[in-house]
Amino acid sequence: MNDPFSGFKAIQKEAWSLFTPMEVFTTPSAAKLVNFAGVAAGQRLLDVGCGTGVVAITAARRGAKVRGLDLSPVLIERAREHAQLVNLDVDFRDGDAENLPYGDGEFDVVLSQFGHMFAPRPDVAIAEMLRVLKPGGTIAFSTWPPHLYVGRMFALVARHVPPPEGVASPVLWGDPKIITDRLAGKVKALSFEMDMMTPSALSPQHFRRTMESTIGPLIRLVVQYKDEPDKLRSYRAEFDALISEYFDRSNNVMRQQFLMTKARKV
Q: Which Pfam families match (predicted)?
């Protein structure tokens, strides 16, 4: 089947390959998602958009039988290294959240930490995640609310690098009303919980530099403006101002709130 977004996904695959340093920040929130989902030993679990495997490995340490999938082969390689370090048997493979290479009802739990939200078609991604989940199984994911720091950062990026036509904004997955609509009739016992990630930073500019070297869309934005210094300067001033709103100067951390969603498949 021809994928109309194959070009977009190829760019994403390349852009997100430098994400690895951010795992120091996403590791604590991975444990929060695993706890929130109530992961238990013996469960068959899939981590969608698994990145460097922080959620998958946290779940595997609890005795779950885990598989992880991500678009980036570079991040999958890192995930395999993490699993080998603790001698955990986790099946990591590169693949597409919109076309999961697993059977119907294969998993007891399907999780995603800031991963599935980047699939261009939310309806396709959620249909696939629910397809591989058994009836009564748990789906849970962490996303970024549109009105808070990360959501506003992605909106800023989209103003400078508009996404291709038909690609949904990833931050819509951070709006409980939209999540409720997207899952309507497919799940029961839907619940939400807010939590906080606190990456360390010496200044807003220091944090921006970290983001520009690890976050796919920001990497692309800087490349786009490499020969337009005025536009680059203007975007950076805007971004620094946004970061400053969430930078806790007294503690050298960013305050990044995220939303966790949990439900059971009907």
A: Methyltransf_11 (PF08241)
Q: How far, in Å, CA of 250 to CA of 240, rounded?
A: 17
Nearest alpha-carbon partner for 209 in 14, 11, 22, 29: 22
Q: List the domains of the chain with CATH numbers.
A: 5-145+163-196+257-265 (3.40.50.150)
How large is the average pLDDT for residues 150-175?
93
Rg of the chain over Cα atoms, rounded to whole angstroms, equals: 18
- Bridge-based pairing of strands 91-94 and 65-70 is parallel
Measured CA to CA, the distance from residue 222 to residue 243 in angstroms comes to: 17
Q: What are the tens digits of pLDDT across the range 207-262?
A: 999 999 999 889 989 999 999 999 999 999 999 999 999 999 999 999 999 999 99
260 three-state secondary structure: strand
Q: pLDDT at residue 6 above 90? A: no
CA angle 158, 163, 164 (to 5 degrees): 160
43 neighbors 64 (Cβ within 8 angstroms): yes
Report the mean per-residue pLDDT for the chain: 95
Return the axis-axis angle of helices 23-37 and 54-61, rounded to nearest 10°.
50
Tokens of 174: 């951070």
Angle between helices 122-131 and 176-183 (to 10 degrees): 60
Q: What is the DSSP letter of 164?
A: P
DSSP run (H or E) holding 142: strand 133-143
What is d(CA 39, CA 256) in angstroms, rounded to the nearest whole number? 24
Q: Can you read off the two tokens belonging to residue 78?
A: 């890192």
1 Cα distance to chain centroid: 26
Cα 72 to its chain centre, rounded Å, is 13
